[in-house]
Structure formats: C-alpha cells, structure tokens
Design brief:
The complex is a heterodimer of chains A (437) and B (308).
Chain A (H helix, E strand, L loop, with lengths): L1 H9 L4 H8 L5 H5 L12 E7 L4 H18 L2 E7 L4 H11 L5 E5 L14 H10 L5 H5 L2 E2 L2 E2 L2 E6 L2 E5 H6 L9 H13 L14 H12 L16 H16 L11 H7 L5 E4 L2 H8 L4 H5 L1 E4 L14 E7 L6 H11 L2 H10 L4 E3 L9 H4 L9 H4 L11 H8 L2 H10 L5 H15 L2
Parallel strand pairs in A: 1-2, 1-3
Antiparallel strand pairs in A: 3-10, 4-5, 6-10, 6-11, 7-8, 7-9
Chain B lengths: L10 H7 L1 H31 L15 H7 L2 H32 L6 H8 L1 H4 L2 H11 L6 H8 L13 H29 L3 H9 L4 H29 L3 H6 L11 H9 L5 H25 L3 H4 L4
Helix pairs in contact in B: 1-2, 2-14, 4-9, 4-11, 9-11, 10-11, 11-14, 13-14
Classes of the chains: A alpha+beta (437), B mainly alpha (308).
Amino acid sequence: MSIDRRKLLQGGAAIAAGAVLTSPFIRPALAQAGGAMFTPEEGASLRLLRWVPFVKGEEDAWNANTKAFTEATGVEVRIDQESWEDVRPKAAVAANVGSGPDMVMSWFDDPFQYPDKLVDVTDLCTMLGEKNGGWYDGLRGYGEQDGKFISTPLCAIGNAICYRDSHMKAAGFDTFPTDTEGFLALCTALKEKGTPAGFPFGKAVGDGNNFVHWLLWSHGGQTVNEAGEVAINSPETAAAIEYAKKLYAVFVPGTESWLDINNNRAFLAGDISLTANGVSLYYAAMKEEATKALGEDIRTSNLPIGPVGKSIELHQTSTISIFQHCKFPNAAKAYLEFMYQPDQMNAWLTGASAYCCQALKGFADNPVWTSNPIHAPYAKASESLRPNGYAGPLGPASAGVMADYVLVDMFAEAVTGQRSTEEAIANAERRISRYYR
Amino acid sequence: MPDLPEPRAPFWRRLVESRNGLGLLFMLPAAVFLLCFLTYPLGLGVWLGFTDARIGRAGQWIGLENYAWLMDDPVFWLSVFNTLFYTVVASILKFGLGLWLALLLNRHLPFKNFFRAIILLPWVVPTVLSALAFWWIFDSQFSIISWVLMKWGLISQPINFLGDPWNARLSVMAANVWRGIPFVAISLLAGLQTIPQSLNEAAAIDGATPWQRFRRVTLPLLTPIIAVVMTFSVLFTFTDFQLIYVLTRGGPVNATHLMATLSFQRAIPGGQLGEGAAIAVAMIPFLLAAILFSFFGLQRRKWQQGAD
C-alpha cells in the first residue's frame, strides 16, 4: 500500500493523497481498514442518488457496506433512490444548479453530459485500478475523458442469452452455437419446432438497445468513427440489417411491439424458448413454483460472435460521479475507496447474485460467478462491453442517439418492411448527424 | 400664510378606496398564480424552443434551427399525423358514443342512478392503471381477445395488436375512447337535464317525430354544452401521453408516437430540451385552432336558436 502511495506521489497525480499525509490526524478506524488514501473532512455527511435496485440482495449489501463506512468514519451517507429513467434528469439538474445530491450512481454516458461539473477522481481510480488488477477497457471508457477520470466505473449489468436446453436439443443442437450463422440456424430450427426465439424490436430501453447494438457491432458496423463523424452508412450496417431480417422472420410474431418486460413474460409463459436478458429472468423462473421446472431447463450463453470475430456487447453500465458542489469531496472519495475495498466490493457483487459485473479485473474471481453455471456468461459482461456510440466519444450526442431509439428504429423499420435497408440506413444517418452536428 | 393644500391621502388608502383599485387587489393573487404557473412556464417553453438547451446546460439562441430540423424530420411529421388522426377519430367516436349514452341515461330506466354511477368508472380509474389493463388485453402473446377468438376457431394465431402500425393506432384509440366516453356522456347528460321537458312535450303535441324533436329541440339547446365538452375532450385527446407511454412508448417504429410523447422522448431521456420544447410549442397552433373552432363554430347563436 505505501509503495502505491509513494508511486502516486512521485507521479504527481495525487494532490489529495498529499493532503492525507500532511493532515494532522488519521482516523484509527480507517487506518485499520487497510490504510485509506482519503480522509473525510471533519463533520462531513454525504448524499448519494442512486437508481432503484433491481435485486434485493444488491441493495442490502450496498446499504450494509455504507453502514460499515459510517461506523468506521462517522460520516453519515444518505441514499436516495430514483427509478432508473429519472436518474438522468435529476442528476443533470443537480449538476447544473449546483445543489442536491453530492454523488450520483447513474447510467451509461451521463457523466459526459456535464464533465466540468464533476470532481476529478483520477487519483482515486488510478489507485483502485493499480490495487485491483486494472479496469476493464469498456468500463474505463465510461469513466475516463481525455486521460482524466471524471467518474468511477461501478459495474456492467450483464446481458446474456437465456434458452431452454430441452428445446434446443429437440431442435437438433447439442451445444449452443457460438457464431451468428449457427445462431440463425438454431433460431430457424426452433421456429420449425414451434418453440421460437424472440428479441425485442420495440422501444425497450434496455433489452432493445442491447440487442440492436449487438446486431450492428457484431457485423462491424458503427454509428460514428473515432472522430465523431457519422459512419452508419456502410456495407457492414447493411449486412447487420439483412441478418436481422432473417432473424425477425423466425422470431415469435409481435416482437416489434415489445417493451422491456415482454420477452421475460413470453419466456416465462413458455411462448418463446430463447431470448437475451439479465440473470433476473432465471431467478424469476426459480421463484415461482409453477415455473420452477422451466427455470431448471434454462441455460445461459454469451451472444454469438459475428463477422468481426470477437464477442462485443453494449450492456447497461453504471458509474458513480462526485459533483463539484459536494462540500466534502474527500469524504466522498473515502466513501468510494471504502466501497471498492475487496471485502465490501465482493460482498456487494455476491449480494447482486450475478446481476452486476465488476468493473475491476481483480474481482473476476468472485465466487458468485462459479456458484452456479447459469452465472458464467454474465461474468464476461465487463470484458465484452463496448461503450455506447462506438467508435466516437461519449457525450450528449451518443446519449441522445440511444435515448431517441435511432438504432432500434433503423432495424425495426427494415425488418418490418416499412423501409428498405438503404432507406432505413439513410434515415438513421440523418438522425445521427443531427445529434453529432 | 397661505393655506397648505390638503395632504393627499396615502397611496394605499386611495387604492383600497377606489373601486378599480380594490378590484385590482382582489385580482392580484389569481394574476400572480397565472403568471407564475402558466405564463412563465409557457414563455420559458417557447424560449427553449429557440435554443439548443440540453438537460444540465443552458442553451444558446439558435433561432428557428430546431423548427427547420423538425420540418425535415419524418418522425416529427409522422407524430403530427398520428396526433391529428388520433384526436379527430377518437373525439368523433367519443362524441357519438357519449351522446348516445347520455340520451339513453336520460330516459327513465330502472336503477338509473346506479347506471349513471357505474358509467363513470373508466373515468375514475387512474389512466396508468387502465392503460396497464389494456396493455395485457393487447399483448402480442397473451391477449384475451386473441385467446377467445382462437378458442372459437376464428383465427389461428394471436392478433398483432401493438406490432402492426394500423392495428396499434386503432388499439390505442380504442383505449382512449373507452376512457373518454364517461366524461362526454355525463357532461352531456347534465346538459340534457337542463332542457325543459315542456319544450319536448309541446313539439310532440305539434306532431314532431322523435328525430325532429331531437334535431330541432334537444340538439340546439345542447350545443353550448357540446362546445365546452368537446373542447375539453379534444384538448385531452390531443395532449394524451400516459396511454401511449404505457402501451407502446410510441412504437412500433413510431407509428403511435404523438407529439406529446415524442417531445418527452427527445427532451427528457434524450436530453435535447430545446428540440423537445420546439415539438411542444408546435402543438400550440393546433390547440388554438381547436379552441377557436369550438368557440366560434359551435357557439353561433343563430344556430342555437334553430335558424339555419
């Protein structure tokens, strides 16, 4: 630990760490917790705005960790919850007016909407990365801007294919196909057996976006290039759409109207035998006596690899940002440092029962990933994750394109035959250029 | 020493004692309320429509750029078409069915009050709850309608209520009409009950047929109520949001996006406050036209008095 600290100081990257060393007191409790880098200001208290938890165990673990932090440091942390769609406007207003919560646990590119209103956490994140095997590239992308961390990556919400093992075998497949061609063959065979697959082509914030980004990226398409110039109009995009058309033809009818919950509902009712979802689908099936047998038939797999040759997905991602209006930035950093300590982080990952995937490689050996074979694909979420708006920079433009369902609409227009592939791409190109103007 | 002019009464005193001044004072709370909660937000919305404001960042004045982009945006025009179609068809249906229901309820039925109370139920249930019920009714896999029709052997696979563009438009409209009828029916019923029975009786003695009595006596006397009720009904329908948001979020492929839902999608989740505001502002001319039409069109006195 002391070596780390010296290294940081030598690098000149840790002014705050210097403040800790010269500070007249170091609280014994925190020192016991492994020699913390940050010491909270005297009389500090914090307010964290977070998304409403999806998994009870995750909430319990987070709150227990927070309580332990309060006991160790005396810093009260108040946690406010907002439904996940309301976190963005609330946090943006807080950033803009300079009051409200001190920290926000938010989704996707939110920190990039107001980077100049956030506390630079490069010192904290560099230290956490060095201690815990480094950040996954995709998640690092959600925290880092121009070489500076503006936000601390927290987790990826893993997305993986959930399928009925017996139905796959009945369709003539012994193992789950790993490439897009095999996947299409499986979906076609499932359709012939009357147990089709189904992915949302409707305005499903999470599932719809995850699916269409995978379609686009697995075929090598991208919305914009590295310079942020619109690059959707490409043969790769066209190939992705043609592939989507073939899939749509063998899906259960009605997927263009699906919102986030529909695939869960259809799967649990036995109307579809393959979809992609968070691990919550499996637990929902196991919870009810009526669907328990179905739950035991569930297997999971990562989404197949397309012509690009590697596993690439969007996944929901979450980061924690500290606002500049926070009166106790050191307390906020100390809180995060505490929450990312192995004891706390591991307890949290375990509590989330494979719903949240670690942002730091050092936590990849958390027992939750091996406790149940169902969890295994979700462990790779952070590895296969690629930031939204690839290959361009994150920011209001990338966020706007996703929130306006530009890609979902492009695929849905083409697969339902409302527009030809070329027209659908041209329409998406127009809309993307608007956001990246 | 010349007499000093009599000192003028203090301003406050004069204000309180003058008729107009006092009137102004009494009006003040209402005026402040209107200014703060109606004029200011409306003005701010109009202003935002001329800027590129995003959530969390004040905008720059960009003139008509938002509107120029919307003029060129097929999604926006689709939402305008959807909104007009939705409003016109749903309002006509609500008016026709509502008037019919009001006329029925105005008769001497057994359990009259019970029926009148029960008719209000769709209006009383919170929109989001009834929308959720309709969401299940229109579900692409579990629709009760599809299920029944399949049991009867009339169809072989579920109806794609919310997936096909026209099915989706008609489905959301059906939900809106179901919800809106009670308001129209009960208001028109109240109007019907203010029409003196003697007029109808006199017309009947003169040999008027029921249709003539309805056309020449009831309808003209009901027109002022119709004007008010339909103005409200059109405004509610035009600005509908909850039903669409719960049922389709504007899908499939924007086929049911109304201007209100598109404005929300772009402004709040999308963060483009300026553009969202511009879409909302673009609703104002339509709303004004609807109001002017009902007030000047439906309230012509001559028509009310029965002169063609």
